[in-house]
Fold:
Amino acid sequence: MTATRSVVLGCGSYLPQQILTNAELAARIDTSDEWIVQRTGIRQRHIAAEGEFTSHLAINAARAALADAGIDAQSIDLIVLGTSTPDHTFPATAVAVQAALGIHHGAAFDLQAVCSGFIFALSTADSFLRTGAFKRALVIGAETFSRILDWSDRGTCVLFGDGAGAVILEAQQQPGAASDRGVLTTHLRSDGRHKSKLYVDGGPSSTRTVGYLRMEGREVFKHAVGMITDVIYDAFKATGTTAEDIDWFVPHQANKRIIDASAHKLHIAPQKVVLTVDLHGNTSAASIPLALSVAVKDGRIKKGDLVLLEAMGGGFTWGSALVRW
Structure:
């Protein structure tokens, strides 16, 4: 029996030109390169320029993905953009991307699941494609977290950066086996009881302000590995695969210690883990597509490879996706 799969046609990314190193941060606040690297693995992050918005990053990433896929923007009929830092309260940043690409048909909307945003967006687009509602989707993760950081709080401002990544998905008929190309399975979770552990202390309805990111770092770390591995085991069960079958593990790039602990618990070899957190920091919904783009460009991820994606973010939200490239 055949199955409709959302097959990846191409991917792309964009990073702002400005780089902020740990040493530069240490000149502003009470921290050090050694302290940041030891606890997070981060060495630098990119910061959006004045007047450079989330939409600008997303548009550049989208154009790069279209070029990589070798397709025209007019063939896209769905845009799903994962972001927690939209240009405006409304309209959705996705419609700004749609307009910039000259697309006047189909649907475009934002999805907010914080650092899990790309996984949630990928799963949503996959569901639409598999039902036949749309044929080609542009899935983007784009963030300007630098705009919601308290730059006097060394526990949070050292962690995050700005960037965007995108993939193009196309609905294709596949044999209906684990060897199929495309999105094989996705698993999403959330638990609002953990809201206070990672949140932004503002919003249009509550404070009429944007607010700043607040985080209980130890609490987030404590929950992360267990939640992440839970949805990965679900992915294995749904597809009949195991950790040994995975060619590449592309986790949300939040903290190297969390990534290492997760890979160890799952028995995934270190050489199969794609790491970009040292160069990008935590770019929230953008981190997974940014890492994918790096690994595709340098030749690691190739057609036919089995790629495991996972993320966890504020809410808490968390999720996994298993994709045959």
